[in-house]
Design brief:
Shape: globular
Strand order of the largest sheet: 1-2
Largest sheet: 2 strands, antiparallel
Strand content: 15-25%
Helix content: 25-40%
Distance between the termini: 33 Å
Order of helices and strands: EEHEHHEHHHEEEE
Amino acid sequence: LSGPFPRSRGAKQYLSLLVAPKSGMTFRGFLGKKSDNAALYKKKKKVWEALANEKMGALRTDRGGEYTSKVFGDFCDSEGVIQTFTAPDSSTGPAESRIAVVQRMSRAMLNESGQGDWLWDETIAYAVDIVNEMPTKASGNENKRSPWTAAGNKRRRLDRFHPWGCFNWRSRTFLYRGGGDGGTKEGERSCSASQRTATTVGD
């Protein structure tokens, strides 16, 4: 878990990251406070297991209070998850390394686009999506498949990725009264720092 970050649009200030051991897939969640971590795992566990195609039989974390709390311990006990901890002051685990990678990617996106730090969660989410599509040698992956395909998922088109914050084309029909003509117009940047809004960009 990493943070605090500048307060985002959704009032989030912390990043919780999980790395699946077999496929190497990365999962992320954004928290308003550290104590929300147990609720995040309760909500996302089954989804993460389905995407990674592996069960969460054991969970190795640091010794932060968000993982050693009674609430999180009760969650692990109820789900049959064996909880283990890294050595004190350890910062070399897979999750820590992955956090460093996506944070560097996030800073690069924000600097290049000129957007405000309050969009850190948007860039982190995009960075994690990119990392899951990058070939890796993790877990004996001899074919250097991406974590997404190593988990047994169907390969996705990579041309859906664009420089974060660039100009894109998107449908604006919903902005017209009466339904519009169904056409497309050149859209704004993916995020607008002046309006503090984010726009979902379509292909």
